[in-house]
Amino acid sequence: MSLSSAEEHGVRSILGMIPQYDLIPLVSTLTNGLVKVNNVEDAIQSLLKYCKDSLDILKRKKITKDVLFKYLKESNVDVSPRCDKAELIHKCMSHWKVSSITTEAIDWEMAEMDTSIEAPEFILQPFSLTTEALMSMGLNFAQWFYNLLNDVNTDSVFGPQHFWSDSICNTTISNGNGQDMCLSVTGAVETVEAIRRAVNHFQYRFEPNLYKDVKCDMDGHGLVKICVNGVIYKHNQPDGVFESSFGLIKDPAACDSNWKIKYLEMRWKVNSVYTYQIA
Prior knowledge:
alpha+beta; seven-stranded mixed β-sheet; 38% helix; NTF2 domain-containing protein; UPF_C3orf38
């Protein structure tokens, strides 16, 4: 079923609010694993192409109440924070002037979703970490990772063994002349090689702020999210700052408490003016 122009524009805006590590698995869920994508634009195009209608996308658990509420507020639609997800979807349909999807259909689909279990993206052993343990994990990881990053040319130190085979890496480099250079890759080997090329090209060294800017949290599925900020050095002189976020998943095949990187998002903001050709 083709979407109207307003409908497609709205759904595209909503999907643009979903992080890549949630968006790509959503394509697999909607297409029963038949369509594989590795970047945001391909994911959005596939979802728009293969959905039965806009409700087929909005009903998904990855499309949360918070996302729908944010979209409606940004679209200047009068909406209450007390609305449930079905009501928010109905608001979207009214805003897009979609008459083919009724309130009853929305309520039915949402009731079906509440009793269904979507295919899990990761298989994890049930476990929990205290707030103190999470903070310790975040600090240890930040120090460990950036020690690795500062030694990228040693394969035994910084290598694909630390990443899941389908890991996702997004890096944005903002230079002194206001240009943004974006790098997006999928796969453990591809991630390592892309980061290694960039670090070697710029001859950067990274010093994370282990005193304040490390945050660590775990979601209900066991995905540990770590945020780290710090300073970038070039030839032992400060040249800018960096922001980074990681998603870690425990490796059930490892006999010890081993974690691998599922996604990595970095932003390097530097003062130098130069260009970089991403191979």
